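Continuing from yesterday's entry. The apo prediction looked reasonable, so today I'm repeating it with 2-oxoglutaric acid included to see how the binding region is handled. Same sequence as before; SMILES copied from the compound registry.
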Amino acid sequence: MPAFAGSAAEPPLADSYYALLRRCGEGALLLSSSDDDHHHDGVPVAPECAEAELPMIDVGCLTTDNDRSSAAERAACAAAVARAAEEWGFFQVRNHGVAPGLLEDMRREQARLFRLPFDAKATAGLLNRSYRWGTPTATSPRQLSWSEAFHVPLAGVSASSSGADDGGCCNFGELTALRDVTREVAAAMSKLAGTLARVLAEALLVHGQEEPRRRCLPAEACDETTCFLRLNRYPPCPVSASAAFGLVPHTDSDFLTVLCQDHVGGLQLMKGARWVAVKPIPGALIVNIGDLFQAWSNNRYKSVEHKVMTNATTERYSVAYFLCPSYDSPIGTCQEPSPYRTFTFGEYRSKVQEDVKRTGKKIGLPNFLV
Ligand SMILES: O=C(O)CCC(=O)C(=O)O
Ligand SMILES: [Fe+2]
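Holo prediction written out below.
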């Protein structure tokens, strides 16, 4: 990308949002200190938050081909997955089929991608023109995400080109190593997500009560056109951790998400009425239930609010795979009666976008209660 050589990589978060932070009385927190934050060498850090012992499930017996595990072992593993989805909405997995070395390669190539000049990321058409940074709709600091990301559609990844936009193909430019590793990660995470969705669905199906119209199975409803991979980067943030988030509190609008976070930490989730921090565990992946699985499961599985805290000095990377159905798929339910009316993913997405535009906040599932 010679035209951009030498220009800065960081998105202009501080410049763009300084006025917003200032207008809301938070400007003084920029590059300075405040009373309610802890400080380390003059740098504001996040207030303490208890670390959670998130369930860790060895899913080797579900993910390994030619596995010698018994049916009883697989049933016990499936039960542990379903229990974690009910009690936490979040869990960690190991022996998940995504090689640790591949995840390390992903982080390295992701870092290389985000080190490109800002203008190249924003305007050179890379990765389906999917670059995002900050929160354009934010009207208060609490709505601001101090992060940058590429949203890569799965279909584009598996048929990516190296030239200009080519149909649905994803343009990786000269980043061929990123293209190869992204393809591998997407394929492996996709397989894992499909396996977990199938196991989670089977745990709730009541045999003999299947009704064809409502029996759209989560794993089968999903396809390459709507599933996507999000490559996230959280730049160091000099703003007080109580003033801006790395990623604002949200639930995911999908069936389930497979997430790989690096060693830095910062992910927090709601457990009961409290935020708890998820300690990074090398090689483990995090899985969380999204809104669509909560609806399909009649609220048995929980789509839990989560957020990313900023870090004053250290950048953080993560990669998330979102398992989504095609837009015209009816979400349905595992069993009648359901608290939700049947709706399609397309309808759900439009409503979320409309609500965010109108009120700055996603309403989500309550919109679809009968
Ligand atoms: O970066 C993380 O740890 C969380 C990312 C996330 O929640 C998302 O992309 O929806
Ligand atoms: Fe999320």
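Comparison notes:
- The domain at 30-205+212-325 is CATH 2.60.120.330 (Jelly Rolls).
- The pocket of fe (ii) ion (ligand 2) is lined by residues 250, 252, 257, 306 (CB under 6 Å).
Will overlay with the apo model tomorrow.
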